[in-house]
Amino acid sequence: MTNAIKIKQGLDIKLKGEAEHSVEIISSGLFAIQPTDFVGVLPRLLVQEGDAVEVGTPLFQDKHDERIVFTSPVKGIVKEIRRGEKRLLQAVVIDCSDAMNRVSEDNSDSNSDAMNRVSTERDAIIEKMLKTGLWPMIRQRPYSIIANPNVTPKAFFVSACDTHPLAPDLNFIVEHFPDSFQKGLEILSILSGKKVQFCVHAEKTVSEVLLKAKNVTIHRFSGPHPSGNIGTQINKIDPINKGETVWYCSVQDVINIGHYFRTGELDFTRIYAVAGSALEHPHYIKTKIGAQIGSLTANNLEDNHSRLISGNVLTGRKVAENDFISFYHNMVSVIPEGDNRQEMLGWIWPGFKKFSVSRTFPSAFVPKILHPDYELDTNTHGEERPYVVSGEFEKVFPFDIYPLQLIKACIVEDIDLMENLGIYEVDEEDFALCEFIDTSKTDIQQIIRKGLDLVRKENE
Amino acid sequence: MKDKQNSKFRQSLRDFFIASDAESNGKVKDRVSGLRNYVNKIKPNFNEGGKFAKLQSTFEAFESFLFVPDKTTQKGCQIRDAVDMKRTMIFVVIALMPALLFGIWNVGYQHFIALAEQASFWRMFGFGLAKTLPTIVVSYVVGLSIEFTFAQIRHHEVNEGYLVTGLLIPMILPPDIPLWMVAVATAFSVIIAKEAFGGTGMNIVNPALTARAFLFFAYPSCMSGDKVWIAGQPDAVSGATPLGMLMNGNTDLPSAWTMFWGGIPGSMGETSKIAILLGGLLLVICGIASLRIILSIFAGGIGMGLIFNAIGATPYMQLPFYYHLLMGGFMFGAIFMATDPVTAPQTNKGKVIYGLLIGIFAVLIRVINPAYAEGMMLAILLMNVFSPLIDHCVIARNINMRKKRAQNVKI
Predict the structure, then answer these.
(1) How far apart are CA B334 and CA B313, in angstroms?
(2) Residues B149-208: tens digit of each pLDDT
(3) Where are the domains of chain B?
(4) How far, CA to CA in Å, does A319 sit from each of B75, B331, B406?
(5) What are the residues whose beta carbons fall under 8 Å from the beta carbon of B281, sequence distance 6 or more?
(6) Contact B341 A353 (CB under 8 A)
(7) How confident is the model at residue A375 (pLDDT cuts 50, 70, 90)?
(8) What are phi and psi of A76, to 5 degrees?
(9) Which among A157, A181, B56, B73 is most buried, taking Cβ atoms within 10 Å?
């Protein structure tokens, strides 16, 4: 096995409330597919309120490419078409009562090999995936949009480790579906025409299913977050140049795809981690994609004053109980709100309990092993300021890119400069740690997203 | 077994850290609530439509100074690091304290030496305070009024940067400087060097050094020569700084040790190298000042000093190279001025180039140029202007690397 690629710049944030390895099953309730999760998609609605839908019934399609459809993850009835400002389609909500749906409690991996006869031809696979609504799981860099089925990517990446704070343990999840996972990897390699670039973490990846994956090129990474981010891995192995595309998807996407091509049965089962310090009992929940936040956190909140986040604490989205988990997110984080602080002259106290990368707080001097699991809340600990400090982002940004300069290029919307500085190689999530440590408290991920959108529109 | 003990030990240590902090937090909270309530009560007056709506920025500045704002994250990262601009700037102010306190004492010390009088420590300190404090107050009042006004007009928050600048300005001026000059120089630097470019974070040159440069060229008689460096100096005594002596061809300098601990005439904050290094140590430990810049400046200065030693054509060139680090504002400039992150290059490679050139130019100007005794101020201001260019060149290499990579793929 080759030497691990060592990521030196980065940061592991140890938070309280990691999910216990126990799985609760939720098979009924409200589920939704939200067009706003898909960057650049212009939805055309295909169902009405009251329609009965099956697993895999198209709910809406992309006006830019009508082959790309988004299908129902469950069997049920369309309960609500949720719209926002200017009638923007926000969610197609499906009510799924227990009797109509079945989240397989037993391991469906033991089922037939019916789909094995599905042709191993690339076009046939793409067609099947488009039709079933599995296709949106495959995304491309640059821009993190749904992959264009007309393109052959230069590589296909899958990361076997999520290094975000409190992220679900993929070792644990993948053990539930070993066969589907392996089958999924094979399908993906047919899609890209090459072996999948499969990135494991030198210490954190322990499952045999992941380490012994067949027909893939395994790369080992070590070091702190963002060593598990797909962006970091692509940059270190096969960086993206202008005009190139790389496809990627998550481990659970691979499982869904593999399951379909192995058994012929469409199943959008997901195991979500529900974690965070404001929960009584952080654990895993097996349900379908797009589950309602409230049903995932039911009877588990310590109080009513918590921040619910679809996704992890660094890149996730603030949600309410009647919202739904995003299509691409693999966890719900719940942390305390930080709006009731009465801290006087906070800039001068030593702040033993506070977590900071900056060495103006004692936590930076305490050896990592002695760090408590921190209970961070949503307080910003300061107000927005112009950029003053230099050299801080470089400590958590492992790309050969100048982060501050790229951020400024995005702010001034200079497309040439963005291209030159490497906008194609990054995504907003790659800047999440920069945003976390930013002394000036700016919304860096939003700035990068706007930059990416601008470049994408320019190149269309 | 050992593991268990270890983890127990760790746990108790963690508990200690958390408990000690919780205690201090608790104590503070009791005292706070009264004041907090009062601030909350008067707050509506400053909001839009309130009686004092025009002072909103001012009110917010004071409120956030007293209490950590209750602002929470809304999008993107849901948690944030505990550091903010206030914390950063306050640490710079703390780092300036040793040099400032020594400077205050030294103003008195030099005064009584010049008068050939004996005086107690407190008398010296008191005299120094009487000379220094007014300049600090003038600098802060003038500078902050301008900053608050600009913030109010632009509907911005007031930035913390001036907390540092306002202290730096008095520290690099001679002790006998007339207060009106301090006011004019401060106003000039804040308006022309900072606000005209867009305020904190946007300025090209260091505002504190701009104030000094302004006085240096506008009122040279008050900023150079051998009559300004000792407060209340009698005419008969020469109060030349080591650099001033050298410019007049006098190499009969104080010993290196004296220059190192700082009992020499000079600007208020620059004389004691020990105190400056102490502050520098704090800044480097806290990761606020760039060690790269500081060391590069030292390396540049030493290197240039060694070259002059090798040439040795004049007595000034023969001066031991390390004297350059101990004389004038070299040390103060290297640690507190050149490391200003806004006016220094932002790339790591750029910082090294910038530092080396500052060191080289500072010594070069001192030794070769007959018009200016001190080269540090001009060297830093010059490199401030060039730092965007340095960054541009460093980043151009990164850009070329990326372009080359793209070409290789296509072939």
Answers:
(1) 27
(2) 888 888 888 888 899 999 999 999 998 899 999 999 999 999 999 999 988 888 999 999
(3) 19-66, 85-396
(4) 10, 53, 41
(5) none
(6) no
(7) confident
(8) 175, -155
(9) A181
Question: What is the C-alpha separation between B72 and B84, in angstroms, rounded?
Answer: 14
Rounded-to-integer distance, Cα A293 and Cα A289, Å: 11
Give the residue carrying structure tokens 């094979």. Answer: A186
Q: Which alpha helices (DSSP H) does B219-255 contain, by range?
A: 220-223, 242-247
Q: Which of residues 326-355 of A touch B (CB under 8 A)?
A: 333, 335, 337-355
**Tokens 């609504």 map to which residue?**
A133
Contacts of B219 (CB under 8 A, 6+ apart): B181
Q: How many angstroms from the chain centroid is the CA of residue A80? A: 26
Q: Does the CA dihedral A361-A364-A365-A370 come out positive or negative?
A: positive
Place of tokens 């040159």: B205
Is the Cα torsion angle A18, A20, A21, A25 positive or negative in sign?
negative
Can you tell me the distance from the alpha carbon of B289 to that of B307, in angstroms, rounded to the nearest whole number? 28
By C-alpha distance, which of B289, B266, B254 is closest to B373?
B266
Query: What distance in Å separates the CA atoms of residue A351 and residue A363, rounded to the nearest whole number?
Result: 8
Q: Kindly report the three-state secondary structure assignment for every residue of A154-205.
A: CEEEEECCCCCCCCCCHHHHHCCCHHHHHHHHHHHHHHHCCCEEEEEECCCC
d(CA B268, CA B262): 11
> Which two structure tokens, joined as six digits, stand for B207?
């505002």
Instruction: Read off the pLDDT of residues A303-341 as tens digits, 9 standing for 90 and up.
Output: 888 999 999 999 999 999 999 999 999 999 999 988 876
Nearest chain B residue to A241 by CA distance is B406
The β-bridge partners of A459 are: none
SS3 A285: strand
Instruction: Classify residue B193 by its DSSP letter.
Output: I
Nearest partner of A255 among A326, A176, A195, judged by Cα: A176
| Least Cα separation, residue B258 to chain A (angstroms) | 33
Interface contact flag, A379 B91, Cβ < 8 Å: no
In chain A, where the domains are located: 5-27+102-263, 380-459
Identify the DSSP state of B336.
I
The kind and range of the H/E element at B31 are helix B2-42
As to burial, measured by CB atoms within 10 angstroms (0-12 exposed, 13-18 middle, 19+ buried), residue A211 is: middle
Q: What residues of A are in contact with residue B355 (Cβ under 8 Å)? A: none
| Identity of the residue in A349, A438, A444 whose CB atom sits nearest the CB atom of B24 | A349
Q: Which has more pLDDT, B13 or B224? A: B224
- In angstroms, the first-to-last Cα distance of chain B is 61
User: Which tokens is B88 given?
Assistant: 């950063």
Considering the entire predicted model, what is its pTM? 0.89
Cα separation, A336 vs A460, whole angstroms: 42
Q: Are A113 and A262 in contact (CB under 8 A)?
A: yes
Structure tokens at A431: 């800047």
- Chain segment B301-334, per-residue pLDDT in tens: 999 999 999 998 888 888 889 999 998 899 999 9
Cβ–Cβ contact A383 with B under 8 A:
yes
Compute the distance between CA of residue B399 and CA of residue B396 in angstroms, rounded to an integer. 5
Of A204, A231, A237, give the one whose Cα is nearest residue A219.
Answer: A237
The separation between the first and the last C-alpha atoms of chain A, rounded to the nearest angstrom, is 41
Strands A216-222 and A246-249: unpaired
According to DSSP, residue A145 is labeled E
